[in-house]
Amino acid sequence: MSLDYVKFSNGFEKFMPKEYRDMVEHGPFGKKVTVSQMGSFKEALEEHPMCAGCAMTLFIRLAIIAFPNPEDTITVGTAGCGRLAISQAAIPFVYGNYGDQNGVASGLSRGLRLRFGDKPKDVVVMAGDGGTADIGFQQVLHSWFRKERFTTIMLDNEVYGNTGGQESGMTNRGAVLKMAPLGKKFEKMDMLQMAKVAGCAYVATVVPNNPRRVESVIKKAVLIAREVGSTYIQAYTSCNIEYAIPTDKVMEDAKTVENDRYQFTEYVSEEAKQYLAERYGYKEFLPKPAAAIPNKA
Amino acid sequence: MYLVANVNVEICASKSCKLCTQYCPEANTIQYSEEMGKEQGFKYGSAYIAVDRCKGCALCVWVCDSLAKNNAIKMTMIDQLPKAALTDNITYGDKSTTAVLASPMVG
Q1: What is the pLDDT of residues A13-22, one digit of tens each?
Q2: Residue B3 near chain A (CB below 8 Å)
Q3: A102 partner at 20 to 30 Å CA-CA among A137, A150, A155, A268?
Q4: Above 0.85 for ipTM, yes or no?
């Protein structure tokens, strides 16, 4: 939880594997890295067992690069594909039991505040649609109502991916899956609206076919969660196995879905806008100069 | 044998859009070197693949063909690659990486 853990123990440097040495010397810790620098620095994410061409992995990769302070971040996950990649990053990862990731993150976030005071320590929950909207639904919603200060990211692949393709609350109506052969009979849950009703300070949808947007959305969500309140990001991260998308067409599918039901939306509460503008210099949220406001009188 | 992505340095170094580096689901697999095109007289550097990490999904091929419209990446059988980069042969610098290209079958 500080730069102290990303260094060599005395005398052990020469015994460390190359990947570890690269991470200490050229990793993202203690400096600002952006999506446009990808391919030229050692990433916190390492090799992982996710399927080839997985859009969820791409999103996780971008998210980890976008963390404002990776050395001061803890990720929390639960059962589902996503944990296989998130746990392979040089960032502490807490594996909650199925469904309790937001409860774990609540305690963690409060504990870190007690221990470190004002020093920012970010807690980011990354769980699948099943973990967030079905099995963990109650704890997710309660953490939002309590205005717990951490970020919840839903990796929405619209299916239970690694258990064989059962429908989830986030599956579209009518979708036929291996374990839902008659097609889903209910609508996709509107988690965005629920996040707003529950009082999240920042709610956004994003699709990984726009890496810079993913980066900006995650940065904002993590920064707002430091002081203002809960933040929620819902990301479409297709499952190319269960939805039988050829791996080279994964981004084409992301584009189609983005146009169909995953248009970029962003809700920022007034308090969060003010916080971003004053603390982090976000120009788009600065109050408009008086002359720019049309005279209503 | 299996397929891995292969970047055509001549096309890549003349465009240098770096889009593929942002779309690969694998970390540190599509790398970027400022020097790779320069020795052949190109203006920019080039992307290259750490073939030991490539899972062969061909997502980068779609990005290069359809988004960037450069057609610089092709899927190639690993034993058909004359030379390629392996993670062990990649050195990180301040803003770029350098790779010693070797025969992937030997490495």
Answers
A1: 889 999 899 9
A2: no
A3: A268
A4: yes
